[in-house]
């Protein structure tokens, strides 16, 4: 009979795979008697989505943020091609300070075009505050723009 302290690999009790798990990961149960290792930082992430009705029309959307944290990523996807000019999307904090911009390029644009922003400044948000997402409306051709904001909760 093997000593418990010498068991390895598939002989380990749940969570199996602990011996080869990456640093800074945690085991998350899937509710079906098993689970997987995920990056610990992702446990505190929340995603908030919004839709700009028409990226080609100047508009500002106020997006409520229900908890304190840091905006770590903004991802957009375009519904269809735009024409004439690029559309610039600006993300700002409650104080009106820019976290950065995304350029939705009109040349070669098509449904499914994805753009990302990883803000490095002005990206801290307070509990029960908001951010704004603005389009300059410089392009033509009506197109919805779907936006996901990833918040690392603090």
Characteristic terms for this protein:
Jelly Rolls; 154 residues; 5-stranded antiparallel beta sheet; mainly beta; single chain; 2 domains; 4-stranded antiparallel beta sheet
Account of the protein in words:
The protein has 154 residues and is mostly beta strands. The chain folds into 2 domains: 4-42, no CATH class; 44-153, Galactose-binding domain-like (Jelly Rolls, Sandwich), CATH 2.60.120. 0% of the residues lie in helices and 45% in strands. It has no helices and 11 strands. Strands 3, 5, 8, 9 and 11 form a 5-stranded antiparallel beta sheet that branches. A hairpin with a 5-residue loop joins strand 1 (25-29) and strand 2. The radius of gyration is 21 Å and the shape is elongated.
State the helical fraction.
Answer: under 10%
Q: How far is it from the N-terminal to the C-terminal residue, by CA?
A: 47 Å
Cα-atom Rg, whole angstroms? Answer: 21 Å
Number of helices: 0
- The CATH architecture name of the largest domain reads Sandwich
- CATH class of the largest domain, named Mainly Beta
* Secondary structure: number of strands: 11
């Amino acid at each position: 009979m093997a000593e418990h302290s010498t068991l390895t690999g598939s002989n380990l009790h749940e969570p199996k795979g602990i011996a080869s798990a990456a640093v800074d990961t945690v085991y998350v149960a899937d509710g079906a008697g098993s689970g997987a290792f995920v990056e610990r930082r992702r446990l505190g992430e929340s995603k908030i989505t919004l839709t700009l009705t028409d990226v080609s029309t100047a508009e500002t959307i106020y997006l409520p943020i229900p908890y304190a944290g840091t905006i770590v990523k903004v991802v957009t996807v375009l519904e269809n091609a735009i024409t004439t000019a690029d559309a610039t999307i600006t993300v700002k904090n409650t104080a009106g300070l820019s976290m950065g911009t995304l350029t939705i390029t009109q040349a070669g644009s098509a449904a499914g075009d994805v753009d990302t922003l990883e803000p490095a400044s002005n990206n801290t948000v307070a509990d029960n505050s908001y951010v704004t997402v603005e389009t300059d409306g410089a392009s033509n051709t009506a197109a919805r723009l779907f936006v996901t904001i990833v918040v690392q909760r603090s």
